[in-house]
């Protein structure tokens, strides 16, 4: 069983930079972190491998070169192979283009199942999983909170999805894209001391558009079907904050404030 | 020119789907378009009398959770009727159907549209970006319908105009045997929904061991308790009362946050909250900058004292 994990590095939203002229996120020099839901997906894949239910775990990332140290980190945690798809021509790609680029690679790389996150922290659209599945013509499920490890060997996967209305158990025919929701467990395995010295050469590859051969008008800003036209950096609200302490006086002021606002009759 | 708008009617979110009529009103004005609903036969009866046309999928192989086949249905409906806009509720399954349908139609898709304006005849779609820090105006390029998903509670349809509804079967080519099958569905226990409460008393990491004691303050104010993810991840509160990006978006009139730092993922869940009161030992916690009032000190002391004060009542 070969598992391919779609793993995106997202800018740390607390420290991002934005290019107002180009209406694009400046992805170079921004602190990156592995998208939390993708980390859950990779952790589940590695657990399956540790339990001998999966043969190999391969991560695929579309992003800037600065993702490299993160991918090496994943290799030290037990991922077998990492691919970084990186090309300046891909800058500014929306989810439609991103899905085409990822699918172009996936359709030639070989997999039995694709793991992904349900959505990312930065874009957060959750479009990439279903769109990759659509291009590859395979089923997809998002919001997976649990997967039955035993079901995975039989050419199908049984997964659980929790929504507000219900808890569903679905069986999907493989190959499929399985989109996992972020969960605090399982966590990525720790890096063992021996792994620090491991030779990673040959296990990370960087490929660009020469390898994938997509037409220039199909990628990047040109190929995108949506574009961010304006950005409002909004102060969410900036009230006149009053400070009090939880002593008699302070509580009285809170009480009076609640009365004024009509929350206390 | 009369526009045509398609709304996908998700049987797992019937009311939320119908609310999307209000999104269409914002786009073209209440009388500027003809509304089409796409539904599976035998579902969403409430749409009758509210939408102009119901396109009905009668092929039993199409199930409400089978996004691949439903995307084919959306495509077939569009090929036949050439919509100006396709609106899909951001329900569990709507979120999976919309991207696949957009891919089939080769059109852009804007997710979780938070606001819609018309400016000089052009429709502006607004969504939150970068973790709620910013609002982005998104433009669609190329030909084809304007395709969006909208979260629950984003638009409220107040004037329900009664219409006579034509029901027409939709024939869809290329439907396949489903590759996803439902093994089991257990309804979530219908618990009180924090989104319906005008007052929320919310607890976070700073007071998590005492979380259960917030209930009395909430009750004294006629509200409900909610939580940050720190409390939920610690197993001290159920996921359904979590506020934030991976929880719920709430718009209470009053939000009292006790021991919550105010990370961006938490704040994303606060939409148009009238009044915010924060109790925190740290007056520089990020949430304090959004508060009308900050009670600087121990959160449980605040909860105990304010509850007593409320129960005592009067002018004091
Ligand atoms: C993908 C993703 C999605 C997420 N989604 C959500 C989400 O939906 N909702 C959410 O809430 N979080 C979410 N988070 C987590 C979020 O980043 C924060 O970790 C979380 O909100 C922190 O919770 P907290 O503020 O309650 O706890 P902490 O960060 O631990 O803050 C505790 C606060 O309590 C104060 N305090 C300490 N002692 C006291 C006391 N005695 N009295 C009063 N105050 C005290 C401290 O000063 C501090 O400000 C998400 C994270 C990720 C990565
Ligand atoms: N640039 C990318 N590289 C690799 N995987 C991605 C990329 N963008 C999105 N994905 C995958 O698709 C999921 C959904 O992303 P999104 O549609 O951006 O919310 C993520 O959790 C990843 O698993």
Automatic annotation (TrEMBL), chain A:
Gene3D superfamilies documented for this protein = HUPs
Q: Which superkingdom does the taxonomy of this entry point to?
A: Bacteria
Read off the SUPFAM superfamilies from this record: Adenine nucleotide alpha hydrolases-like
Domain Electron transfer flavoprotein alpha/beta-subunit N-terminal stretches: 22-204
Keyword set, alphabetical order: Electron transport, Transport
Which InterPro entries does the entry mention? ETF_a/b_N, ETF_b, Rossmann-like_a/b/a_fold
Could you tell me one molecular function GO term of this UniProt entry? Answer: electron transfer activity
Listed SMART domains: ETF
Record protein name field: Electron transfer flavoprotein beta subunit
Q: Which organism is it from?
A: Desulfacinum hydrothermale DSM 13146
Upper lineage ranks? Bacteria, Pseudomonadati, Thermodesulfobacteriota, Syntrophobacteria, Syntrophobacterales
Automatic annotation (TrEMBL), chain B:
Electron transfer flavoprotein alpha/beta-subunit N-terminal domain residues are: 5-185
Q: Which InterPro entries match?
A: DHS-like_NAD/FAD-binding_dom (IPR029035), ETF_a/b_N (IPR014730), ETF_a/FixB (IPR001308), ETF_asu_C (IPR014731), Rossmann-like_a/b/a_fold (IPR014729)
Q: Which Pfam families match?
A: ETF, ETF_alpha
Q: Name one GO molecular function term.
A: flavin adenine dinucleotide binding
Co-factor note (free text): Binds 1 FAD per dimer.
Decide whether keyword Transport is in the record: yes
Provide the GO biological process annotations. fatty acid beta-oxidation using acyl-CoA dehydrogenase
Keyword annotations: Electron transport, FAD, Flavoprotein, Transport
Q: Which residues form a coiled coil?
A: none
Cofactor(s) this protein requires? FAD
Chain positions recorded as FAD binding sites: 228-229, 242-246, 259-266, 280
Listed SMART domains: ETF
UniProt lists the family membership as follows: Belongs to the ETF alpha-subunit/FixB family.
Name of the molecule in the record: Electron transfer flavoprotein alpha subunit apoprotein
